[in-house]
Design a protein that fits this description.
It is built from 20 helices and 10 strands. With 443 residues, the chain is an alpha/beta fold. Helix 1 packs antiparallel against helix 16 and helix 10 packs antiparallel against helix 17.
Length: 443
């Protein structure tokens, strides 16, 4: 459930590299690839430097405190704002300096608000949006790093317990839910939006699950959502952390509507004018401002054949072998760019993520969240590996981009390590407790 910064620069560089390498592509394909690279570069920019500057500004008055300690900023009343009219409520995720990354206090406030609204017969539906240039960059993984550093494991447990319960609430909500994904939408940002009724992507949307790049696993329900994508797109996104834009999100089913970001104010105005709890009426409103577009020729959505050929294998090693073989045979720079991402990621995380997606295909939404909770606790405790702590250090804290993974290679990752990742911390450790409430869409 990580934030955006640990992968944005990496993805932007990889796509620019593949631009140079794919010299065999037709001119039209090269133009499409260039447009995609420019999109990803706009999303990435100097994100990490901006993130760190924002953190220093926010914490400047706390001279004796680590600059990465986000807990000082926790103010649920200002971090989660509420707008609305007589029939609807709009939730605004309001931590723009941190790309609206979710923390425990925000999760608690969201749960309280949503539960109160669900039982109110006068309220017809709920809208969620983000402030600034992000919808939500995921969970506040820097705060998790601080908790681990201080030995506050119980606080880590509360973080995942609270946010996973809220994501389940969104997935089983009895009222229509509209998420406006106008900006960065990653990790936990997908977790609080994809389970809902409607997801509106725009030309500013940038989606990814980049957890393997910091020694974690795609969580926040990702093992359910990714595993239900067409073909083996889910394995690809889970292992590489690659991005989808708004058009691609619609094409694969992650978003229900696509609109230019310039239309978002009109969409919000239309929604606020509705007096209804009927999803079809909300659908009509969203459709009125929808734009028609298609993934370009360079999109991974158009690489179904190669995804099946390479990512359908049983093991990460076999996937890498298939990509290397394909790269050698076709001279396709895209394969080489994907190999670079896989070889940068945590070896343990790659194996854990692949198994998680495969198990997700056979489980319900709630079962996936319960399993992911176990996996997340194993990651923060670090009994198997300290890769999560090391990955955040390398990507966010020291910014050396040179994580020392443990184990250091795929061949050193044992089956026992992977098995333990999916087990409870101890026989007495309680599993995630979700209410007995299910919606047909998640069966």
């Amino acid at each position: 459930m990580v934030g955006a910064d640990q992968c944005l620069e990496h993805v932007g560089v990889s796509n620019r590299s593949s631009n140079k390498q794919n010299t065999h592509l037709a001119h039209a394909d090269m133009q499409s690839l260039a447009r995609r690279a420019r999109f990803l570069h706009r999303c990435s920019g100097n994100f990490f430097d901006e993130f760190k500057r924002s953190t220093r500004r926010s914490l400047g008055s706390y001279s004796n405190t680590s600059h990465s300690d986000h807990s000082l900023l926790a103010d649920p009343d200002s971090d989660v704002l509420v707008e609305g009219n007589a029939c609807s409520r709009t939730v605004v995720l309001n931590r723009p300096s941190f790309l609206n990354a979710l923390n425990t206090s925000m999760g608690k406030r969201l749960q309280k608000l949503y539960k109160g609204w669900e039982g109110n017969p006068d309220l017809g539906f709920v809208v969620m949006k983000g402030s600034g240039r992000a919808f939500c960059a995921g969970g506040d993984i820097v705060s998790i790093h601080d908790m681990i550093r201080k030995g506050n494991i119980e606080e880590c447990k509360e973080f995942f317990w609270t946010l996973y319960n809220f994501m389940y609430l969104v997935g089983t909500y009895l009222k229509p839910h509209v998420a406006i994904l106008n900006g960065i939408t990653m990790g936990g940002g997908a977790g609080v939006s994809i389970p809902g009724t409607f997801r509106v992507a725009t030309d500013k949307t940038a989606f990814a699950t980049p957890e393997t790049l910091i020694g974690f696993h795609p969580d926040a329900g990702a093992s359910f959502h990714l595993s239900h994508l067409p073909g083996h797109l889910g394995e690809y996104l889970a292992l590489t952390g690659d991005m989808l834009n708004g058009v691609e999100m619609v094409a694969c089913g992650f978003a229900t509507h696509y609109s230019l970001s310039a239309n978002v104010p009109a969409i919000e105005k239309c929604l606020k004018s509705l007096i209804t709890n009927d999803p079809s009426v909300i659908e009509t409103c969203l459709q009125k401002y929808s734009d028609l577009d298609y993934p370009n020729n360079a999109s991974v959505i158009r690489r179904t054949e190669i995804l099946h050929k390479c990512f359908s294998h049983d093991t990460v090693e076999e996937i890498i072998d298939a990509l290397e073989s394909e790269a050698e045979k076709t001279k396709d720079g895209w394969c080489n760019s994907i190999l670079k991402k896989l070889k940068y990621a945590s070896p343990l995380s790659l194996k854990v993520a692949l198994r998680s997606i495969r198990e997700g295909r056979l489980q319900t939404f709630d079962q996936c969240l319960i399993r992911e909770y176990r996996m997340s606790l194993q990651a923060v405790v670090g009994q198997i590996s300290g890769d999560l702590y090391e990955g955040v250090r390398a990507r966010l804290v020291d910014k050396d981009y040179a994580p020392k993974w443990d184990p250091p290679s795929l061949e050193h990752v044992t089956q026992d390590m992977v098995d333990q990742y999916f087990s409870p911390l101890s026989p007495l450790e309680p599993d995630l407790d979700l209410p007995m409430k299910q919606r047909e869409a998640f069966m």
